Amino acid sequence: MNSLTGKILKVDLSSGQISDMKTPVEWVDLYTGQKGLGSRILMEDVSPATEPYSPENKVVLTTSVMGGTIVACSSKLAITTKSPLSGTISDGSVGGHTGAELKYAGFDAVDIKGKADKLSYLFITDEKVEIRDAASLKGLGTFAVDAKLKEEIGDEELKILAIGPAGENLVPYSCISSEKYRQLGRGGIAAVMGSKNLKAIAIRGKLDVCVNDLKGLLKYSKEVTERDEVTADDNEIYDLGTTCLVDYSQESGLLPTRNFQEGTFEDAEQINGQAFKDVRKNKKGCFSCGIACGNYVEEGDTSVEGPEYETIVLGGSSIGNGSRKKLIEFNSICDDLGLDTISAGGTIAYMMEATQKGVHDFDIRFGEMDKALNMLEKIANRDGIGDEAALGSKAMSEKYGGEDFAIQVKGLELPGYDPRGSWAMGIAYVTAPRGGCHMSSYPIAEEAWGELDPFTFEGKGKLVADMQNSQFCKFSMGVCDFWPIDDETLGRLFELSYGGEWPADKVYKTGERVFNLQRMFNIMAGFDRTEDKLPGRFHKELLKAGPPKDIAYTKEAFDAAMDEYYAYRGWDERGRPTVEKLVELGIEPKFIEAYKAVL
Amino acid sequence: MPLKFDLSKCTGCKLCQLACSSSHYEVFNPEKARLKMIHEYNDDGIRIASKSCILCKKCEKVCPVGAITNNGRWMIVDEAKCIGCGTCVDNCPTKIIFLNEKKSTICDLCGGEPQCIEWCPKGVISLKERKGASA
Ligand code: SF4
Ligand code: SF4
């Protein structure tokens, strides 16, 4: 007995066929769950050359192997696809209760392909799985979809993944709302759902989840959560959630302000952790999580779970907005329309700077929040200039100019950390498989907020690669970022839940294997070192305040650091994993053969 | 001694329900817990509520075969007697009794060591001392 359900649900929206397959143990042993399993399922029959909006692309939901158990912070859900924004493999993950619910419904994963002939939603329970008509949900925001389905089905505990108008209208940075207020899927997973005519997935499960060694797991799990102070009341992440980072970034001079032109924001105190705590109504925790980082806030008529740090930056300082109320509105509108706050904010910031600099007049300037909020609607509805803004800052800058200040990597807009204030973040951004993202590694915690010198590249290639491997095993084996768990503890929890032997080095290798698998996909999709680059701004302009003041972040030094990174990873000078490396990692031969063909 | 809840501290993590189902059935399943925490968003904001045995003893009165008794601190189901008719389920004012494998299932305070209290990370749950109960 182990913590898997043993089943993968397969849905072909074109034919309407629903079936299931046994969860292949070999896949779990190599790639575990969530991120790793999602990548593996996607790659089983989606070629890296697949057109993202074609019926052949997939939307793959994967749970955590420990999901549904009592292990703290272990029940996230991942969704993987080929991104229409970056063209890379792209997976997003969400906490809350949806991942656990899917396990209780009896599935480790859901593998969706094809295209429904009309707008549909997928209904998954332990008793039945159905593709249902969603005509009445057409054009609705995600909040309304959540309410309507709960009411129609008559169960307030349904867990609903929904796309908004942005996903239906194929905005390549539309995202999915889960349980109304949690979001996932940077890089447009919602648009891939939209392209499949899939408006929502409603899940409810009532089956058991068992584990390999129950007594052992209960004892060990309690012991290590207490040891690591996961549930301590003075945990800052519990107290403030990610909003605590505003003050840190401001002090470190890397708080993106007016599209990364500056690194400190004069109104930071109005949108920091304390400011949002002042309007907090409740805390909300994910399933089995003792931390509860979620903040449910209300101001005026608007309520939202959040805003998270990244939203505060991209909908706040980076568009010149110091109003907490407007930020909450920005967050709520994005969530309801189903837009990624980071890419939406990043694109609007680009338009503001283009207007400011006279590169192109988009009639929107820093701080003009009413126009910004209106632009969100235009983007989601592909209305007027919104139709172009919907394509993101990279596409816009290619047409209108200002490429140096289109703040993105591989088309994915950057989150809330200026790499000039924490140098390794730049390496992290360009090597993250899905494009400009902070989730694949977070060296800022060691640099700007830790003991390491943030203004040197020495040893940083190795640092970033090591952190990525650890993050990738955490996000595959299934523990939230906010538990700073070590590989040994993670492995032991995995043994007690799933079984087998998982010493620390095997755990670490799993992360490295998954990271390389995603890189292989991207190389086969046509990427290499050429795309591992930062926007020109960071190398050409100096920050003028705070710790990074006047310190040059040169392209030459960056390139040298990248050489070090690739070498440490066992990749060639073009940033491609070597065949020897892939063999050493135990990647399956059939993938290596396909990969060799493109080298 | 029924359970009492400080709902203002609850974060909806369901660790209490997992502790309950694992201690009684050796599985993780919030649906098989003898208490239930609701922590859901709706149009009015957020709804937080708890359901648990309040020791009203109505089940004891309605059970047609006398399978349910109490020891003054918790209810006791005699599974050998229980015929799985569901009368207790239908009459439970808090709707917390359920049938598991055709047997009535009610909070037994884990025999005096409530696991939900033990596992709740936020100190939401405690035991309500009854008036006049001796120490
Ligand atoms: S006291 Fe025990 S049986 Fe009662 S609800 Fe809590 S965990 Fe369940
Ligand atoms: S364990 Fe505590 S915080 Fe979590 S749902 Fe139960 S009562 Fe609420």
Q: What does this 3D model show about the protein?
A:
The complex is a heterodimer of chains A (599) and B (135). Chain A has 599 residues and is an alpha+beta fold. In chain A, the strands form four sheets. Chain A has a six-stranded mixed beta sheet with strand order 2-1-6-3-4-5, sandwiched between helices. Chain A has a six-stranded mixed beta sheet with strand order 8-7-12-9-10-11, sandwiched between helices. In chain A, strands 13-14-15 form a three-stranded antiparallel beta sheet, covered by helices on one side. The two termini of chain A are 42 Å apart. The model of chain A has no long low-confidence stretch (mean pLDDT 95). With 135 residues, chain B is α+β, with helices and mostly antiparallel strands. Chain B is 19% helix and 24% strand. Chain B has four helices and eight strands, in the order βαββαββαββαβ. The two termini of chain B are 12 Å apart. Chain A binds chain B through residues 68-70, 97, 104, 146-147, 150, 156-157, 179-181, 206-211, 214, 218, 222, 225, 230-231, 281-290, 292, 294, 296, 298, 303, 305, and chain B through 11-15, 18-19, 21-22, 25-32, 38-43, 45-48, 119, 121-122. The complex binds iron/sulfur cluster (SF4) (2 copies). One iron/sulfur cluster (SF4) binds at residues 10-16, 37, 120, 122, 124-125 of chain B.
